[in-house]
Amino acid sequence: MRKIETDILVVGGGPAGSSAARYASQSGAEVILIEKRQEIGSPVRCAEGISKKLLSKVGLSPDGKCIAREVKGAKIFSPSGHMLTISEKQAGDEVGIVLDRVFFDKFLASLAVKAGAEIRLKTAATSLIQESGKTAGVTAVDIDGPLEIRARCVVGADGFESQIGRWAGIDTKLKTKDITSCFQYRLTGIDIDADYCEFTLGSAAPGGYVWVFPKDEDTANVGLGLQLSQLKDAGEIKRMLDRFIAKDDRMSKGRPLEMVAGAVSTCAPIDRTIADNVLLVGDSARQIDPITGGGIGNSCIAGKIAGEVLSLAYEEKDFSEKSLQRYEKGWRDEMEERLYRNWMAKEKLVSLSDETFDKIILAISEIGVEKLSTLSILQAVEKKYPELVEEFRDLLG
Hints:
Layout: E1 2-11, H1 15-25, E2 31-35, E3 49-50, H2 52-57, E4 67-70, E5 73-77, E6 83-87, H3 88-91, E7 97-99, H4 101-115, E8 118-121, E9 124-131, E10 134-142, E11 145-156, H5 164-167, E12 179-188, E13 196-200, E14 209-216, E15 219-227, H6 236-247, E16 255-265, E17 274-275, E18 278-280, H7 296-316, H8 321-349, H9 354-367, H10 374-384
Parallel strand pairs: 1-2, 1-11, 2-8, 5-13, 11-18
Antiparallel strand pairs: 3-7, 4-7, 5-6, 9-10, 10-11, 12-15, 12-16, 13-14, 14-15, 17-18
Helix pairs in contact: 1-4, 1-7, 7-8, 9-10
């Protein structure tokens, strides 16, 4: 079997993997990133929204090809049609820019290459190599057949279906209530306000929401995500989205340019994302926002933290779990409290009636919030409908 060696092997070429590879390379470490698909960034498996603030936070200035549309904010619709309009500043981490992920992911990968990383496409990990109880690389298969990639540290950035964590003995298992199943069209020929993203709450998407993310004046990503435990059969989510589109005069005459189905984790932060010579990042580490299902920003942030820790570990010649604990602390300090709070809120939100969602949107419209967050929403609702907040009291502390 063919064998190659490297200091750090990154499995997965999405935002988390490319960010980790980029920053890990900056210390001079030899970094290889493998991607099982033949093209970085395709097929697209998300609504493609991110805030300008998050891009700035990780020092990214993508070129124009990466940005499909800049929006002014978001419109949130209650089940009966009440509308709340919020600015980009208020909207949170998934609103501000609608990306073109095909170009954006390639942009991130190119930054990793410029930093010194090597990318190998059509290369899929098939198992971890274990020696003396520690990970020593992966077995893989590429276009030329089987190979071994020996590495001092393996980074699992292999997304929702991550196998690296499972092979390394890290518990990343999910309950059905902590999985959001998604189906999305890119619709063209529709009549939307292309300056705003849209979200519709309630029974149209039980345990989730319907989204409209503009790509240009008459084209948008239109999708629906709902809690997997709410699904009766595999085709139901498409039928629900089709019904929603058919009832909306602005979109019913639209035609799909593409469609995609997938799933994201919407769980509480997991207990461990590292082991000796192994580190998980992005959706493989369950770093997705449990309310929005958004993960681009979190993946870039966690990937940067991971890469910086890996650079230090390389310089110290120590990729032990103790050494990688700096990554565990770093990403948790940055986002764990927010992720846990949003998971707790999600657990409550899935049980709310359409009537309650109507009241929440009306309360926020009347009272207003400076920034749309779990805490600010509850504080606004408490002023108008204090009885609705009793079940959420522990989130107001």
